[in-house]
Amino acid sequence: MKKQQEKYIEPSLSCARKRTKDEVEYSEFAFNPRVLGLGKGKTYLLKTFGCQANLSDSEKIRGILNHLGFKETVEEKEADLILLNTCAVRKTAEDRSFGEIGRIKSLKKTNHNLIIGMCGCMPQEEATINTLKEKHPEIDLVFGTHNINLLPEYLERILINKEKVIEVFSVEGNVIEGMPKVRDHKIKAWVDIMYGCDEFCTYCIVPYTRGKERSRKREDILNEIKVLVKEGYKEVTLLGQNVNAYSDGDFGFGDLLEAIARTNIPRIRFTTSHPRDLDLRTIEVMGKYPNIMPHLHLPVQSGSNDILKKMNRKYTREVYLEKVEKLRKSVPGISLTTDIIVAFPNETESDFLDTLSLVKEAGFEGAYTFIFSKREGTPAFKYESNVLPKEAKERLLKLNEEINQGFLKGNKRFEKEIVKVLVDGFSDKDESVLSGYTEHNKLVNFNGDKSLIGEIVDVKITKAYTWHLKGELQK
Ligand code: SAH
Ligand code: SF4
Ligand code: F3S
Q1: Is residue 375 lining ligand 1, measured as CB closer than 6 Å?
Q2: How far does the centroid of ligand 1 lie from the alpha carbon of residue 374, in Å?
Q3: Is the pTM of this model over 0.90?
Q4: In terms of DSSP H, where are the helices of 243-348?
Q5: What pLDDT is attached to residue 167?
Q6: Any bridge partners for residue 421, and if so which?
């Protein structure tokens, strides 16, 4: 056992914190011919938690597994490999994944050959590896966010050499192009434009789990999008933890956005924007091209300057609201959504009221809201707090009430309007009802034939609810 443990490569949050000035290197992914066919006759089940970065990574994992000959299944009992792609952003996210592991490992009693794996952001933390080793030694495969490309080799070690693999790198590697992707959708695609984050907001684990900021080269991004257009994709969402920090030499995010707008892709979205880095050039480009959607997710986190400072967000509420004004001028009718954290250490009632007032002033039409969660390794982990859990919950409820009002108001403005909807599929509740999103990112349900899935159609809005719109197809 001891010998085996020495072969493990384990994470270190203190290494992950370091940022070097080294140039980013680029490399091309390739399969070693030796591993082809490794998954023949075997099935896998992949569960994804967390943000779009994980959704996009899961498409690569699926691409690799399918290429090795594995077939995807949704039946746990059938699977030869169950892999969890995990999120570490809040404790609740981690609890959910550990709960899943606890449940899934019991399947080993009946399926002795079952391989259980964990990847994504959680393995990037020492604490996760310790818990896995102590409480879940049944896990066969652990890797992180920087070594998805090595999955074929890891599976070979497990299946052929009967090893257990724990390999997590804390220093980011090259930007690797050419990994195969099996995409979630046939009409909407995630396109990574950059990886990592150098912002170090004091509450956030992401800069540690995802490493240093690294941008893809413009030609690789544009080529990917040109292929998507040829394949009939209608929408791309450009992904990065801080897309506004994109840089390929002096070619910045605004330049990239404009170049993408000039391809024939009908709809462009991007996430996530950082309010400090969102620049005038980007705001102008957003107003200039009709295929850049009039919706922006711009996480504000707090409306109190004091808290923003303690969060290391590097902007004030005034600067944030100024950018909102510029956006509204450049993109009339733009829909804005945000992320907000309540009960950051020592947040006062007055800080919280500042957040409520900012929500009103900014006119958000939706938000993801969270109670601050302590993340080991981040500066805020050590901050003392006098906010009681009960107060935190009350603040979240109050904030959500305000947000929901904005949500409904944002939806109401489309009543009686004719809007363009990209038809995604059927409504969750009713298979005879179609659903899709408007340019402003509003969910619409309406009656129509399934042949319209994948098309952009005109829909007249008949009624607005808090979470969705109801409409009639225009012929
Ligand atoms: N890069 C993106 C997404 C980061 S994670 C961005 O900067 O917006 C998504 C959201 O989770 C954040 O916007 C923040 O609101 C929330 N979040 C991050 N760390 C958190 C923590 N420790 N506790 C509670 N919420 C957190
Ligand atoms: Fe986290 Fe801040 Fe980076 Fe977003 S910008 S990923 S909140 S550190
Ligand atoms: Fe979670 Fe990692 Fe995304 S921590 S939010 S999956 S970058």
Answers
A1: yes
A2: 12
A3: yes
A4: 253-261, 280-288, 305-310, 317-330
A5: 97
A6: 438, 457
